[in-house]
Design goal:
Layout lengths: L26 E6 L6 H20 L6 E6 L13 E5 L5 H4 L3 H10 L5 E4 L4 H6 L7 E2 L6 H7 L4 E2 L12 H5 E2 L6 H14 L1 H10 L28 H6 L10 H8 L3 H12 L3 H19 L4 H7 L5 H12 L3 H8 L3
Parallel strand pairs: 1-2, 1-3, 3-4, 4-7, 5-6
Helix pairs in contact: 1-7, 1-8, 7-8, 12-14, 12-15
């Protein structure tokens, strides 16, 4: 009896996703809207694209972007295509918007068609509810992190980035998220840079009087801005004290002594009121202080490392890569104004 051919249980290796095409002139930016959406989540990114068109007009070029605000349920009458970017803003109204079955269905239908689909701030909750963030890295406003984590266990929530748009990665270019409010502007600049080049992104940023583009991996907020006492009532005095002591001992034990709390209690209060640990908070403050000094170009990297409590430049370099995804030297060259 002839032997039967054996069936292999091995599956062919997954093929890498083909690169996405670049946006073409006439690229449509479709921003959904709903009752209670935050106005800056909408107008901030849309102004970046409008300014890019203005800069092109001064260069004698035709507009590149076509902007459309899909108010209320206008999105249901809009048919996106392969030369579209869809943005979903956040805001208090997201409590209801994320449960809007019609909006979720429209986003699921748009996802395989459009070139890009992303969210601003808590708009990530809408994408998550639509099932578009499963098996993806995502971020949102820092106060919504736990809510995003709770929607689906496969969502890899990154609390320490401004946006997840990666121009060099097809998956990261197709669906992306951004953190609170102004991070949507950083996201829009990243899209402009991908579409029209770094020179255009620089021109837009200069026109809007802002950074060329903060790295997407940069921390969401500056710890040097002490939270309002109402948000961290038991830590207010300690947080005002920390920035003046960066070059000294800021161990958990020293912080506990200064706050008159046992170390374990202090750790619980930090987690509850700020969503982080005392050591991580101190490191963030030191990184932001170092970034300010490097941006002013008034001191060497070694001096900045010593003044901000890192001791050795290598420690400063590791912390910069951890929080800002860039080296101290590269940060100074990119953002320095001195």
């Amino acid at each position: 009896m002839p032997s039967r051919p054996t069936r292999s249980n091995s599956r062919p290796a997954a093929q890498p996703a083909p690169p996405l095409p670049r946006a073409r002139p006439g690229h449509r930016i479709l921003c959904t809207a709903y009752e209670g959406a935050m106005s800056l989540d909408i107008t901030g990114p849309m102004q970046v694209f409008a300014t890019a068109n203005d800069v092109r007009a001064r260069q004698g070029l035709a507009p590149f972007y076509e902007l459309a605000l899909l108010a209320r349920h206008a999105w249901s009458e809009c048919a996106p295509d392969g030369n579209c970017t869809v943005l979903v803003p956040g805001g208090d109204g997201v409590e209801l918007a994320q449960h809007d079955a019609g909006l979720r269905r429209w986003l699921r239908q748009a996802e395989p068609v459009v070139q890009r689909l992303g969210s601003v701030c808590s708009g990530a909750l809408v994408l998550a509810r639509a099932g578009l963030l499963h098996q993806r890295t995502a971020t949102t406003h820092w106060c919504r992190m736990d809510e995003l984590r709770g929607i689906h266990p496969s969502i890899a929530v990154d609390p320490d980035c401004l946006h997840t748009y990666e121009a060099s990665h097809p998956q990261g270019r197709h669906i992306f998220t951004s953190a609170g409010v102004t991070a949507g502007i950083d996201l829009a600049l990243a899209l402009v840079e991908d579409d029209l080049g770094s020179a255009m992104a620089l021109a837009v940023a200069r026109h809007l009087v802002m950074f060329v583009r903060r790295p997407g991996g940069q921390a969401q907020f500056s710890p040097l801005l002490t939270p309002e006492p109402a948000h961290a009532p038991r830590l207010a005095r300690l947080l005002e004290w920390i920035p003046g002591q960066l070059g000294g001992d800021l161990s958990v034990e020293r912080l506990a002594e200064q706050s008159c709390l046992p170390p374990r209690t202090l750790a619980r209060v930090f987690r509850r009121e700020l969503g982080t640990t005392p050591a991580r908070y101190v490191e963030q403050v030191r990184v932001q202080a170092a970034a300010t000094l490097l941006g002013q170009r008034q001191a060497s990297v070694a001096t900045v490392a010593r003044l901000c409590g890192f001791g050795h430049p290598e420690s400063l370099r590791r912390s910069f890569h951890k929080h800002l995804s860039v080296s101290p030297q590269a940060f100074a060259e990119r953002f320095g104004t001195g």
